[in-house]
Amino acid sequence: MRPLNRAERFSLQVVLVCSMIWTADFMFRHIVPYVEGRIAPVITPLEVDIERSFSGDGFTVAIGSSQKKRNCEYRGIEWWIGHRGKHRLQVPAEFLDEPQMRAVGDLYWREGLRVSISREQFGRNSHGDVLHSCWPVHIGDLSFDLWLTRTPFFDGM
User: Fold this and answer.
1) pLDDT tens string 77-117
2) For the chain, what is the total number of helices (H) and then of strands (E)?
3) Distance CA 47, CA 90 (A)
4) How far is CA 80 from CA 18, 26, 63, in A?
5) How far apart are CA 152 and CA 116, in angstroms?
């Protein structure tokens, strides 16, 4: 086997550096948020008040409560038709209450959570995660999150 020439060594180094960057990016975008959200969840699963929840034309509004366990800033919610870890389709979801800074403790959504699926799909074949910023970084005027913690929020039966 012949030794690598200078161009081949450089190419190999570029490939190795790119692989390390890709691996770190994948870890901080997918693995770390998933693991943290299960080991140290920001919020407890949604407890739906079935009697007050309702469906409209192509959507369901779930009235419910939860408990915030860590003081992290809310960044968003993601909802899917399908079961966790299987084939699924993302659908729009939003909290209808006005945005507010919520402290650790009991939470209740009076206006509810609107998800663009039927009530049957909501209860039997959907799941949602809540995203929070628990690790913000501030450097001068620059602010960013190391990652967004992904906490399981609801699992249909």
Assistant:
1) 999 999 888 889 999 999 998 767 778 999 888 889 999 99
2) 3, 11
3) 21
4) 32, 21, 18
5) 18
